């Protein structure tokens, strides 16, 4: 989702693209956020073990990585729309990326609900130590 938005947002920038420095920085910001969003989920389950299993710690790590990816994707879409001068109102790949990213936070949990698991786990660690 984030990659589609980053790619489509740079296809034919208008508006802010008139200011080349602002356009270059916006595209750079989108690329940095995309790399960050992609790296987290790809590495979240690896850790020290070959097979991380499906324990609470692994689930918390996956949930945090998913949350980070969704929030970064949302920001990338917003930046792409800004760079494209809001042209997602017509049928386009950017519009599809925008719609897909907006639905991402609800599968399977919202980004805020995702924080419950790692937060509860950490508080339990502190309580029992």
From TrEMBL:
InterPro entries associated with the record: AcylCo_DH-like_C
UniProt-recorded Gene Ontology molecular function terms: oxidoreductase activity, acting on the CH-CH group of donors
Bias type Basic and acidic residues, positions: 1-10, 93-102
Chain segments carrying region Disordered: 1-55, 88-115
Source domain of life: Bacteria
Protein name stated in the entry: Acyl-CoA/acyl-ACP dehydrogenase
């Amino acid at each position: 989702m984030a990659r589609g938005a980053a790619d489509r947002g740079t296809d034919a920038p208008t508006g802010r693209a008139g200011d080349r420095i602002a356009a270059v920085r916006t595209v750079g910001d989108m690329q940095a956020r995309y790399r960050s969003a992609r790296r987290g989920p790809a590495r979240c389950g690896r850790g020290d073990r070959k097979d991380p299993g499906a324990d609470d710690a692994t689930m918390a790590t996956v949930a945090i990585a998913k949350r980070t990816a969704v929030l970064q994707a949302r920001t990338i879409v917003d930046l792409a729309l800004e760079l494209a001068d809001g042209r997602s109102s017509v049928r386009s790949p950017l519009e599809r990326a925008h719609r897909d990213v907006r639905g991402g936070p609800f599968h399977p949990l919202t980004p805020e609900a995702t924080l419950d698991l790692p937060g509860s786990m950490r508080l339990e660690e502190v309580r029992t130590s």
